[in-house]
Amino acid sequence: MDKLRIVGGKRLSGEIPIGGAKNAALPLMAASLLTDQELTLRHVPRLADIDTMTNLLVQHGVTVTLVGANGKNGNGNGHKRSHGGGMTMRLKADDVGSTVAPYDLVRKMRASVLVLGPLVARHGEAKVSLPGGCAIGTRPIDLHLKGLQELGAEVVLESGYVTARAPKGLTGARVVFPQVSVGATENLLMAASLARGETVLVNAAREPEVADLARCLVAMGAQIEGIGTDQITVRGVERLHAAEHAIVPDRIEAGTYAIAAAITGGDIELLGLDLDLMEAPAKTLSDAGVAVSSTDRGVRVTSGNRRATGVDVMTEPFPGFPTDLQAQMMALMCVADGAAMITETIFENRFMHVPELCRMGANINVHGSSAMVRGVGSLTGAPVMATDLRASVSLVLAGLAAQGETTVNRIYHLDRGYERVEEKLAACGADIERVRG
Ligand code: UD1
Question: Whose CA is nearest to atom 25 of ligand 1?
Answer without folding.
Answer: 139
